[in-house]
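quick one, two chains, predict together pls
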Amino acid sequence: QYLTKSVIFGTMEVKTSSNSVRFDKQRCSFIVLIMFFSLPAVNAVWPMPQLISSSTDRYPLSPRQFIFQYASGSSAKSGCSVIDSAFKRYFPLIFVDYLKKTEKHMYRTFSMQPMLNVYASIHLSFPFSVVDKLSVSSGQASLRAKTVWGALRGLESFSQLVYQDDFGQYFVNKTEIDDFPRFKFRGLLLDTSRHYLPLPAILKTLDAMSYNKFNVFHWHIVDDPSFPYQSSTFPGLSSKGAFHPSTHVYSQTDVSRVISHARLRGIRVLPEFDSPGHTQSWGKGQPGLLTSCYKGSVPSGTFGPVNPAMSSSYQFISRLFKEVASVFPDPYIHLGGDEVDFTCWKSNPEVRGFMQKMGFGTDYTKLESYYMENIINLTKTLNKTSIVWQDVFDNHEKVKETVLHIWKGSPAQIQQELSDITLAGYRVILSAPWYINHIAYGQDWTTYYNVQPLNFTGSEQQKSLVIGGEVCMWGEYVDATNLSPRLWPRASAAAERLWSDEKTTSSVTDAFPRLTDFRCRLLRRGIQAEPLFVGHCRHEYEGI
Amino acid sequence: QYLTKSVIFGTMEVKTSSNSVRFDKQRCSFIVLIMFFSLPAVNAVWPMPQLISSSTDRYPLSPRQFIFQYASGSSAKSGCSVIDSAFKRYFPLIFVDYLKKTEKHMYRTFSMQPMLNVYASIHLSFPFSVVDKLSVSSGQASLRAKTVWGALRGLESFSQLVYQDDFGQYFVNKTEIDDFPRFKFRGLLLDTSRHYLPLPAILKTLDAMSYNKFNVFHWHIVDDPSFPYQSSTFPGLSSKGAFHPSTHVYSQTDVSRVISHARLRGIRVLPEFDSPGHTQSWGKGQPGLLTSCYKGSVPSGTFGPVNPAMSSSYQFISRLFKEVASVFPDPYIHLGGDEVDFTCWKSNPEVRGFMQKMGFGTDYTKLESYYMENIINLTKTLNKTSIVWQDVFDNHEKVKETVLHIWKGSPAQIQQELSDITLAGYRVILSAPWYINHIAYGQDWTTYYNVQPLNFTGSEQQKSLVIGGEVCMWGEYVDATNLSPRLWPRASAAAERLWSDEKTTSSVTDAFPRLTDFRCRLLRRGIQAEPLFVGHCRHEYEGI
């Protein structure tokens, strides 16, 4: 390999008698060896493509001459906002030093041989193709995708194929990639209720998600502690329920910005308005919505879940969801439905009366089902599909056409739940093994990597109902100060599990150097990703 | 309390019919109540002063008129670099909004009543005073300290007494503080070998240390993975032993900058050059230093600890430490001495021959003792005192005048070790309960807070030998990306344990709101301190 390098750089040997430069050159050749052997180009893309073949043939890239262009047969053409803006975004991601004035000089000094141009062309004229293709060969790269979203994934892969040698010269190896995601739903949850996340933290997370080929941002926007969503229909919800009515809210403009930032990166925004539990903050701006808890025969002054006995509750939810449905274009809304505590309902005479009237006896799961069915139907009238946490299934509510979201249980319980839910014919999203807010000393990413989402008893038909998985970053102990280093690269382990073939990515040992390398790439792109273990990146994070 | 506020702001009521402003005002008064009741001024200083009394009488501070000045009787006068630069540093820490152009306007709008000036005066003419005093009363604050370092601590306390009301107006309450640290040695260890920490990360940590009244930066500068210290005597150590010879090193200028930054903040820099183990990276630039390990009768190609059988080893250490002693002005050097694995020594025929010659039999702890005694004596000739890890005591080496550093064991073992070491008459530093690199889900700061350093069997004389404690942030999983949120405010819990009276700070419940408040103050000062639990700060971290 070093011979190849010598040939390519035949005219560039720097001879000097200085000791320090000699050491430097020795280290350089060592680093090159690492690149060629420990981190071969064939493994350079995270998450691992379905098929990738590459050779050691490499082509230099000139940031001065490199252009992206739509191929002549492409159905997407200049003016396609998603691709146009991706071209603009990926240039500085690929040529990461180029825009830094101080390093420009380098190219003048070292770039002595003529460079080859590489054109990334995007064909969008193959609607029946199942597989997106990225091909890098002499002088040209070509990307064929059946959707703009596939084209975005291909651009990400291409950007990861490019590397710099020790002289700062950019290269890409001859490569063929056929790629598609294993799961359609590759989500990440942020919780903006337990702590408020300023907009830059959310946008930065979306950037990092796109580098990891995540495609769903599950925005757990409100919960007990605060209601930062600024509703135009009910402004009191945030003005009274947010941590602060002006500084700790998401205005309609903020929400639009998140949705548009996400869309341009091929990411859907799935809003969650969890009810009837987890709604303490809702009550502040919407008196009468929550159940008044009783101590004996008098109200205790505290409140429980949404009051399911009042028609006004459904009228409120209906109006709120009508707004939510129009603000968030995604065809799904997450309705929550988890951890409903019946204590307060049981204490309230009005609720007890309603139970009697409805013939529910003392089975409060029936009341919960009644509530959930109502708001699921209400969501359906808004032409949206519901996603709910597993509790709704566990309590035997009728939830047809709804997607179930698994969040709890031991590994064995999770497997059972996957079997049961899919046997009942429901689609399912898996989150339980990816509660990434839980931290532990050491390399816990391996746990997230080793998850086998389809390892449960069930038919092929059942397995096909597992539409994907989602990493959850709950906010009890997380805000913008520690979000990025806790997410990355730990969430990247789940990203590969959700995108890549399980057989070709079954080894933690093989993944380690690749993920170490990818983490350095994240750093280089400004993502505050923490280290996996002892070592270093060529460019360390200094943005302290 | 609200009445008081109404009187002070009697002329400032903002009347309006707008709903949103009405909500805003309600929240404001609520926040004021929190400040007066949940976070009373008496508890506003972290770590808790030895004695503090304060009243609800408060004085407005004008950033335009506020000045620091040396009191007329002060022995330190203008020209004292430590205090002069502290005056400059603390102004923007106290008036945190003042230098931001956008918020200047506020003072014009709301500052209607004349303000009182507060002068912080520093008396340095009381060499026999045991207690430093800070007194804030009508129109003037006065700080009496017997050393410049005490004056720095007093300035920190004063800066924490100042708060802003909801209109951005600065206030300080009438307060009397008598203060002194419980322990003389309040350290924090950073490990720059397992990951390189860029200089800004170290300087920022020193800033945060001073806010927490830590006074020793234990710089674990080199270890097995890398040797970033750029030695002028042995440049090969870093050029071959660092992760990168230019980008991942601490030049002499860098080291000076760290020492000077620390000194101005009242922080000593204690360098550690750990040997004979933990020296893999040393071997790269100093061939022949490490023991060559044998497989049978031939060298295996791997290396063990420093070779204690060669006089050249001691000559090398002597020359290296001569440099270290002159570069680092602190009277102490940490010599390490932990975790020496005897396997390689046992395999090496030369070392075995030396054992025989010295009459050590097969007891390799004697060889280890021989090595440590040699370098402790060598350190003594440089007029420095040695600190070593507890292993050196555990292996019964003669270590008179040396300070022992406890780093391991169960709580019971740690108590026993404290008893044993102090009974033998050695001074001791406690780190074992404060290995803050170990993380766990939830509020683990309480564990660090609940440590009782003097809770062991021993006489008063023995207890007085516990000179302090040290928080250790080992670098296996930590670099500049996650250093700050992992350190702060978790290390702050240890900071209070080391500074404050144990009786007045025995309750985690009482500490929680104070630490929550202090964490927000750290954020406001640009320290990326993570949250303790659900909630918010008025000014969130946005520097993502």
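The domain at 51-97+112-179 of chain A is CATH 3.30.379.10 (Chitobiase; domain 2).
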